[in-house]
Write a structure and sequence with these properties.
The complex is a heterodimer of chains A (453) and B (66). Chain A is α/β, with parallel strands linked by helices and 453 residues long. Chain A has 15 helices and 13 strands. In chain A, the strands form two sheets. An eleven-stranded mixed sheet of chain A has the order 1-3-2-4-6-5-12-13-9-7-8. A two-stranded antiparallel ribbon of chain A has the order 10-11. With 66 residues, chain B is mostly helical. Chain B has helices at residues 3-16, 23-38. Classes of the chains: A alpha/beta (453), B mainly alpha (66). Chains A and B meet through helix 10, helix 11 and helix 12 of A and helix 1 and helix 2 of B.
Amino acid sequence: MTAPLHFHSITELAPLIAAGRVSSEDLTRACLEEIEAHDRALHAFITVLGASALAQARELDAEIAAGRCRGPLHGVPISLKDLIDQAGVPTTAASRVREGHVAGSDAVVTARLRDAGAVLIGKTNLHEFAFGTTSDDTAFGAVRNPHDPSRSPGGSSGGSAVALVTGMSVASVGTDTGGSIRIPSAACGIVGLKPAWGEVPCDGVVPLCESLDHVGPMARSVADAWLLYLVLRGTPTSAQWPLPAPRPVTGLRLGVPRGYFHEVLDEEVRARFAASLAWLRQAGAQVVDVAIAHAAGTPPVYLHTSLPEAAAYHAESLAAAPERYTRNVRLRLELGRYVLAEDYVRAQAARAVLRREVDAALEGCDALVLPTLPIPAPPVGAASVEVAGTRQPVRAMMLRLTQLFNLTGHPAISLPIGETAGGLPCGLQMVGRPGDTEGLLAVAAACESRVMA
Amino acid sequence: MTVEEWMAAASADAERRGLADLAPLLESLAESTRALRHAGWERIPPAPEPPGAADRRGPSDGGSPR
């Protein structure tokens, strides 16, 4: 190991902590020092829990000294997107609307992390109420991408991704309604998992759109994401730790949806994706083209689902204190009030069609593979970007390749696949069979070392 | 209600509520609504479900996320 310990993965740290060779207190202190040194510029955190995290770390070190190890997360500093309740701590959702809120109890996922021995180091910044993909509409300062601070880290879980890249926490928990875990993971060069819909409970998490919301891990490796996913899902890690060795790439059959998914792609992203497919083929994977006939219809279906669901949740505070929202988020929420019920119903019928088409594309395949983002991280505050000679809206670009799998509920993961010439990360998205998140993780673990340039 | 009728009503309401900034977003939504309505979704018959499919259903089937 050459990098400082707090930049290592959970799977590397866990045996060292369990053996008493690394203390949770030292690890937590190192993360807190990174926050102190860099967060004034990057705005990754909204609330830093220095004192309570150190106290928790000391207690966990004492447990190790007494011969008790809770599992691989024991003593590991983990951050939570500030949409997730932690007892006694504000859940701001990055909004002035929530001023004065303090969570009375832990969200289910927070309680599970606590029981697993995670050190809860702080609450990370996000796009206000998770209703955006760039993490710049927030009451706590636009989050900056550590690879280039003039760029967005993606969103809405932007602060969580930045925290991992900069060593401010070893892993994080985010939420994903249209891509909000996978988008910042791709833009910052980490691993982000959206589990199958409904697997990880959302109780104690501020909703955005209840039929699209997912909670999931953001991590430095597929194995770390897997361990966190097991804990978030409520599965004791003792039964599955250590994780099984990755299966071979040889024999994997990977489906590449073409058409819509490749029509608007930055040329460098296209090249990184093509290189990843070439490496996977070389390693013995069978890569085949598949079709999702109505994929181009995804954006209207997503819009007519997400806008009214978000507007319904926010109706009361929109009426009472509209000025407390950031301008863009308020306008999108107001827009949701104008979607007709009949169009919402049409969108739900269309979702069922899309789900069947994704299921069909997965028939005979271990996973679908496609880029996570069609563009590298856009400049902070940009409304549009140039993509392959055309001007495109940033929001539409960011959601373009991820939102389909929120509509259908399939598990999906983003893996880093290297960087553009300008040093901006690119992501590969893998999509698994319905309800089979662990199957997807096994495929991603097999491919990880082949695509992570 | 046609998209044009909806657009006229929505624009008038937004103006009455002092939300002039909504105008370009309403235009985009109208375009998106036309796309949703004209994609021909309702003419696609559902495929017969394989055994056990009900156990794997996702959010588009009306289950509860919580």
